[in-house]
Amino acid sequence: MGTKQAKYNIKAVSQMVGIQPGTLRAWERRYQIVRPSRNEAGHRLYSDEHIKILRWLMEKVDKGFTISQAVSLLESNENTVDASSHAASSNQLEVLGDDLLNALLSFEENEAQQKLDHAFSLFTPETVAIDIIGPLLVKIGDLWEENRITSAHEHFASHFLRSRMGMMLLSIPSDSMLPKALLVCGPNERHELGLLIFALYMKRKGYDVIYLGQSIAGGDIDIVIDEIEPSYMFMSCTLKKNVPITVSLAESLQKQFPELKIGLGGLAYDRLSELDKKRMEPFLVGNTKKDWEAWLTKH
User: Which ranges carry the HTH merR-type domain (predicted)?
Assistant: First the structure.
């Protein structure tokens, strides 16, 4: 793969393509997908052709392919995936989600395990989390709020999904040399499934994720930030009543740690007025993968 007119350093490529430098280096070592040239100081330099290849691979990964599958497609010159394949994949994700939901609402744990294992055999963990488990959580919440399922159904399903998500997060290796991202629920918050999905997304993007889960004691977060010195901190909030104290904490931490990039997410922020959202805009990361990508690009 050519390296003519190599002019971009790895930091520029990271920002242009949306991939962490450490992840890019790992891809180069394992798959030899691009071969950057080196300047006199020995630093990597990438060409426009390299950028094109990396963007193509990232598009495939974002659509649910593993990186090894994407590289195989690239090497076999399969540069396009037809629209019918995408439609079939979307339909399959919906069917898998419905099957998993039916198993959970029937308290069939073994069947739910089999359905989720089948999903993982077809799609990446990130795709399963965002496109199957994410929508499933919304459906379960809606069913409970509409009194169409009991609290027992909601607790069983949430506990099952939280356990599997936690296992998924731990299964992805961490690299302490990559940028650290501290994730925790906002003050008085206990619902962490949405935060777990975001944690998985961040870890798959190449960040070193320190996941704290449910809200921790007041004042402890300052100690943690001082100790691990993260580049990012994200807090989730699902209950509207907890938004003011979460935002207040974010503003206080931003003054105390001006270099720390702080993001807020969760369903509670969708219920705010447009005026309130405007005031909090610098912090709001959104609730979709597209929103997350945009926020990280800005920060």
Answer: 7-76
Map out the domains of the chain as residue ranges.
Answer: 7-78, 83-169, 173-298
pLDDT of residue 278: 87
As a three-state string, the secondary structure of 189-238 is CCCCHHHHHHHHHHHHCCCEEEEEECCCCCCHHHHHHHHHCCCEEEEECC
215 φ, ψ (degrees, to nearest 5): -50, 140
Band (pLDDT 50/70/90 cuts) for residue 100 is: very high
Q: Please state which CATH class domain 7-78 belongs to.
A: mainly alpha
pLDDT at 24: 87
Rg (CA), the chain: 21
Side chain identity at 23, as an amino acid letter?
T
Residue 2 has pLDDT above 70, yes or no: no
Class of domain 173-298: alpha beta
Sign of the torsion angle spanned by Cα atoms 7, 12, 16, 20 = positive
State how far the alpha carbon of 165 is from the alpha carbons of 34, 59, 123, 195, 268, in Å: 33, 24, 15, 10, 21
- Put simply, whether the predicted model's pTM sits higher than 0.90 gets the answer no
User: Are 7-78 and 173-298 in the same CATH fold?
Assistant: no
* 83-169: CATH architecture: Orthogonal Bundle (1.10)
List, for residues 103-160, the tens digit of each pLDDT value.
999 999 999 999 988 887 777 677 788 888 888 887 888 898 889 999 999 999 988 9
CA distances from 169 to 83, 147, 178, 233 (A): 31, 32, 16, 17
